[in-house]
Design goal:
This protein has twelve helices and no strands. The protein has 239 residues and is mainly α. Helix 2 runs antiparallel to helix 8. The longest helix is centred in the middle third of the chain and has 24 residues. The chain starts with 8 loop residues before the first helix and ends with a helix.
């Protein structure tokens, strides 16, 4: 039987980068655990999130087929096992993590309406993927970091606009890309977050100013390199 795993590698780049961001930020703060306990907490959080992410495909299939048994079984297997691994952190931080419920509900609604590749759905999906950053941070420190969530989500949401800009190649999306980067810088300044974390987004602005033809694979490799650079910069400049 074929396991319905998510195969969008761009989503996995965002997810694992967010997990690393949460771990690095947590270790630079005050970890409540050490050694094997810390490794177990981080690993269980990441594994639980991986299972929840993989529940997306069977969920979409179940919605399309109006609850076909095979898809529902996979959905329940992924989601319930993932939630079980995350349960200790979700219960402990229920007040904070319950605030992400609207994101989950809105994404399910968009999927049910067949708008998976709608701009709003893609931004919503990325906002859910980056929840992994504060959740891993919480597993390590026992505290919630909204600043970390805002930082990671703002950075990776730029990738959604860049892909749209490359596909459409219209002046509107080029302006949107440029204005988004400027707004991100302003938000970081207001939140007292180091703007140096946004250095990789200079490539987005340069692309918007002088867009050139390139394969989508090249764009993907560029975004991967920027994600790596972002994680390195976060290791140096996260407060």
């Amino acid at each position: 039987m074929k396991v319905p795993v998510v195969k969008e590698w761009g989503s996995w780049v965002v997810f694992f980068s967010s997990c690393l961001a949460g771990l690095i930020a947590g270790l630079s703060s005050r970890p409540r655990l050490s050694g094997k306990e810390l490794a177990f907490a981080a690993a269980s959080a990441v594994l639980g999130l991986i299972l929840l992410i993989n529940s997306k495909n069977p969920l979409a299939s179940a919605l399309r087929t109006k609850g076909k048994r095979e898809h529902v079984v996979w959905l329940l297997s992924f989601s319930l096992t993932g939630l079980a691994l995350l349960l200790p952190y979700l219960i402990e931080g229920i007040r904070s993590f319950s605030l992400f419920t609207p994101l989950v509900l809105s994404y399910v609604t968009l999927l049910s309406r067949g708008k998976e590749h709608n701009l709003a759905a893609e931004l919503n999906g990325f906002a859910l993927l980056t929840v992994s950053a504060p959740l891993v941070y919480f597993a390590v420190t026992g505290e919630m970091s909204w600043g970390l969530y805002l930082t990671v989500t703002t950075f990776f949401a730029a990738g959604v606009f860049k892909v749209r800009m490359r596909i459409r190649k219209t002046p509107l999306f080029r302006w949107i890309m440029t204005l988004y980067c400027a707004a991100a810088f302003a938000v970081f300044q207001l939140m007292n977050i180091s703007a140096l974390l946004l250095l990789p987004l200079l490539e987005n602005i340069l692309t918007a100013v002088r867009i050139r033809e390139e394969k989508l694979k090249t764009t993907g490799n560029t975004e991967l390199a920027k994600a790596v650079l972002f994680i390195i910069l976060l290791g140096f400049f996260w407060r």
